[in-house]
Amino acid sequence: MDELQTELSEETPVWAVFGDLMSALLGVFVLILVWVVGYQLQLSASLDEEIVRREQAEQRREALEVALADPLAMGRITVNEGRIGISGSVLFDLNSNVLQADGQTLLASLVRPLKTYLGSRRELLMISGFTDDLPIQRGNLQFEDNWELSAQRALTVTRALIEAGMPADLVFAAAFGDSQPVADNQNGKGRALNRRVEIAPVPRSSGDG
Q1: What CA–CA distance (Å, rounded) separates 198 from 71?
Q2: CA 182 remoteness from chain centre
Q3: Using CB atoms within 10 A of its CB, is residue 96 exposed (0-12), middle (13-18) or buried (19+)?
Q4: Most buried in the list 89, 148, 155, 197, measured by CB within 10 Å?
Q5: Based on the domain organization, do 72 and 166 belong to the same domain?
Q6: What UniProt keywords are attached to this protein's entry (predicted)?
Q7: Which of 126, 132, 136, 123 is nearest to 85 (CA)?
């Protein structure tokens, strides 16, 4: 009997085990709570940053539309999400990178408002050439493919803007060929929309002056 009482007295009390278990559970709960609060703060910060980015993008779009109010009103250009679109038929003949007279005049009219828009902004203008998905006509040996045609058109527009007074360090050319259509290439209307040049403000890299 004495031995049994000794054994029972040497065992860990039930309440002590329960207390240790509750302490462990409380620790886990605190860790989870800290993680949740931290995640919520991080999510809130990311949301705030996204709101600021959207507001800045909207301000840039509005400033661009104000600067280009006249050509926009005349329907000579479009502005979509900050990108200025010019129909390829306004600038070039089919499968050509030779700027037409009307296109030359239009580009010259854009220089002043674009310079006004850029002002003190740390932005450059990316001049992008796009084509439809029809292959280059066999009789046209000047361009190997649509990539080359879109590149030459972008370069032509870039040079025309510079000749009209746009500082050369504020523009650069890019080519996309038929890789980014904005309409269906299965019909003539869609292909005409895809043959275009876009002028888009883009942030300067940290290494630019």
Answers
A1: 15
A2: 15
A3: middle
A4: 197
A5: yes
A6: Membrane, Transmembrane, Transmembrane helix
A7: 126
Sheet of strand 83-87: strand arrangement: 78-80, 83-87, 196-203, 123-130, 171-177
Q: What does the pLDDT look like over 73-119, one tens digit per residue?
A: 888 889 888 899 998 889 998 888 999 999 999 999 999 999 988 98
Domain that holds residue 44: 2-54
Helix, strand or coil for residue 125?
A: strand
The pLDDT score that the predictor gives to residue 8 is: 47
Q: Exposed (0-12), middle (13-18) or buried (19+): which is 35, by Cβ within 10 Å?
A: exposed
Same domain for 103 and 49, yes or no, is no
pLDDT per position as a tens digit, 153-189: 999 999 999 999 999 999 999 999 999 999 999 999 9
Rg (CA), the chain: 32
Residue 83, SS3 per DSSP? strand
208 found inside a domain: no
Instruction: Please answer whether residues 91 and 155 qualify as being in contact, where contact means their C-beta atoms are separated by less than 8 angstroms.
Output: no
Contact 159, 89 (CB under 8 A): no
